[in-house]
Amino acid sequence: MPIRIMLADDHAVVRAGYRFLLEQFPQIQIVAEAQDSDSAYHGYVHYQPDVLILDLSLPGSGGLTVIRRILTRDPEAKILVFTMHEEVLYAKRALEAGAKGYIPKSADPDILPKAICQIALGKSYVAETIAQQLVIQYASGKPGGLLASLSQREFEIFCLAARGATLKEIASSLHISYKTAANYLTQIKRKLDVDTLAELTRLAYLHKLFDQSLNP
Hints:
There is one protein chain. This protein is α/β, with parallel strands linked by helices. It has two domains: 3-139, Rossmann fold (3-Layer(aba) Sandwich); 145-214, Arc Repressor Mutant, subunit A (Orthogonal Bundle), CATH 1.10.10.10. The chain has ten helices and six strands. Strands 2-1-3-4-5-6 form a six-stranded parallel β-sheet, with helices on both faces. It is globular. The relative contact order is 0.11.
């Protein structure tokens, strides 16, 4: 039986590239695609793929929230994060949320089918460069620095707010009330010792969570 794959990435050209690469392997079958957070979640529920290949920068609530929602519904879900984010903090958060693997898009494309097969077998797969950074951080006793103080939900809201999402948009994306979102944001600012959204955004860039070219 082939390994049934779902691709979740907001760029159609990137998904086409995935498809071209993976269709070279007869043991892998692509059964669905998604272009945003909601379609990734609902597509997973509908198609029940063996492995979901997920980008973290999906429009909407984002990939981390998708991981959490899917794992809440299906604790056995096998999710491989394939993303532009090479910052080890993102890898740490994704793995903590329940992803079985993490590969940056800068990695050799040949490792993608290898990772899929490993994860389909119930194993995990983390790109060597990311794994080395994780080992170094934990060995030094500094796994994540200042942002490590944030809970998983706080980190999700931090990322959304730093990207410019309003409280109303955050509440809608994460399916929580406006008041809950506001309370979380207040708690985040307190933990990070910042007063404004501008300072919050600057902190995100300093931690290399976003591409600098996106900085307005």
